[in-house]
Design a protein that fits this description.
By secondary structure, the chain is an alpha/beta fold. It contains 17 helices and six strands. The longest helix is centred in the C-terminal third of the chain and has 23 residues.
Length: 337
Amino acid sequence: MSQQGFWDFQSRHEKLAEQKDFLIELDILILWEDFRQTLELIHQKTRKSNVGRKPIDVILMFKLLMLQRLYNISDTELEYQVNDRLSFMRFLGIGLEDKVPDATTVWLFREQLTKSDLVQDLSHRFDEYLQKSGHAAQAGQIVDATLVPVPKQRNSRHENAGVKAGKVPGSWQDTPKKLSQKDIDARWTSKNGQFHYGYKNHINVDVEYGFIRCYEVSDAAVHDSEMLGAILDSENADKGLWGDSAYRSEVQEIVLVLLGFESHIHERAYRGNPLTEEQKASNKEKSKIRAKVEHNFGSWVNEMRGKTIKVIGKTRAKAVIGLRNLVYNLKRYVFWK
């Protein structure tokens, strides 16, 4: 690179800084090295010896995945955008002369992260940091779930019946390549008269700061209430719990009391037994708190380019959804700083 080219590159970076590029704030405010210990476990689980070319730095690869989930783009699109955009280069700490990891390398790293089952560990790592930095979960917790669509499968009625019954159609078993392109974990569900195919992201958000403290992933057909026990946060300083009426039942209310929670879950109407005016007023008050969780799902749609993910199988879906939850928390941390 010529000296003139170098200064031109620096000048463009300075202009980005003047415009308060979000990626600059994200890069500066997040302690990326805090994730290294967890990320290095990938190599411990996948490398059998130190012979051969050294792997690309795990922090660089992790930041690539964060960019991908922040903008909800494919591996190929990510490779192109990193080569094309100065803001991406600056965030990654690379220059015009540096080689950018290609789409295959990104895919392989994400696969290693997925198979090593480390995504939730990364979320726990960041939650530990939040507690140390004065952002511990407090003021209660809100639970909710959202549908996460995946590309629809073009199967026959017979094949769909087999998948729903937990069986893999024989024709797929005989053709491994075809089977690898079939999602046997995703399910159909209906909501507000419309059918959706994919998974669900079940989350627990603290009332005070709005960080996702716990999450679980299921297929779309699982009822929200079935996952409540898996996402309750025992470390929240306040035992108040908010949620919509999907989480309400006599049994659930008894269990929550036994666990020491104070339920603010919406009252629900039943056939022939509508809500009273008092119950409606109570739900309206509860909604003022519960509405805070909608910021998370709204961020997915409005700031992170939609909820649809293009993966096959629950294992990969859980990893990608987990990474998106983590990206949201990183964004939320920048907001509070």
